[in-house]
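Notebook entry, cofactor series.
This is the third protein in the set we're modelling with a bound small molecule. For this one the ligand is NAP. I'm keeping the input format identical across the series so the outputs can be compared line by line later. Sequence and SMILES below, as received.
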Amino acid sequence: MKAIVVSDPAAGTAGMTLTERPEPLAAINDVIVRIHASGFVPTEMEWPSTWADRAGRDKTPSIPGHELAGVVTALGYGTTGLSVGQRVFGLADWHRDGTLAEYVAIEARNLAPLPGDVDFTVGASLPISGLTAWQGLFQHGRLQAGQTVLAHGAAGAVGTMVTQLAREAGAYVVGTGRAADREKALDFGAHEFVDLDNDTLKDVGGVDLVFDVIGGDVQKQSAALIRAGGTLVSIVGPVEARPADGLAVDFVVEADRAELGEIVQRVRDGRLRTNIGDVASLDDAISALNPTTRRLGKTVIRVLP
Ligand SMILES: NC(=O)c1ccc[n+]([C@@H]2O[C@H](COP(=O)([O-])OP(=O)(O)OC[C@H]3O[C@@H](n4cnc5c(N)ncnc54)[C@H](OP(=O)(O)O)[C@@H]3O)[C@@H](O)[C@H]2O)c1
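Returned structure with ligand:
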């Protein structure tokens, strides 16, 4: 099969090559999916799981990409719940070969059915950004209607999902980002916007939940805004700043079939809009994944045109 592979952590996305790899085999509880579209998070090249298996052993050359939408072509020993020919989307295991390829072997529990009226490109754009937003807001952040959320990077892949889901849940959403992101963040539902390069976070006042996608000083300044009983949720590694009287949580997104179902249903009925930027074929993936201009939305590789 055709696949994108990486071999050198120092080379990052610039070290990607398009090559031939053996088709994967289905292990216990796996399915094989013929991938139609794959999502990609640019920071994957910095994640240890891109380079090593669960035991820490070098697994290069490895296939990156962890979001997929496609069609099940084979079942592993003992696999239940999905069938050959079914449209699916989901989140591939961090430590196994990923989704920038024509086929992937993936545990069935990491997948959900993709309704027939949702395009594969849309399906592949949702798993990481949608699940991360859902889990950060509702599981780790315990968001309640009427609360205020500070949604950092509100025009980004995760931030646009955070903004929309928080607003739907009845929260007041303060989005942040670059000056150029103001209109987009407001368009995705932020009630107000803070330009982190020119405005002052202190002026935001008290918030109940900070959804941090940036870290560093922005995280520290945001922790100071959290009201008693509030939560700092970070997705960029161990938290360095803790609210004076609240919780701090950092987490890595997990696959969840029921949550994927909630997310895709919102896309179908218009409550959730995707934030897709470039769409490229597998043959053109390397240049799409090494853009020369700022990314505006999620890059999706359309593996099967
Ligand atoms: N733990 C997890 O499970 C998990 C899951 C998903 C993502 N992540 C991580 O979360 C981060 C965000 O992911 P994403 O896919 O949403 O990325 P993204 O689409 O690039 O969105 C991030 C947004 O934040 C903006 N931003 C970053 N630093 C900023 C700063 N200092 N001031 C103003 N705006 C700033 C970015 O603008 P610029 O493009 O101009 O920088 C971009 O608009 C990444 O580091 C990713 O690895 C973690």
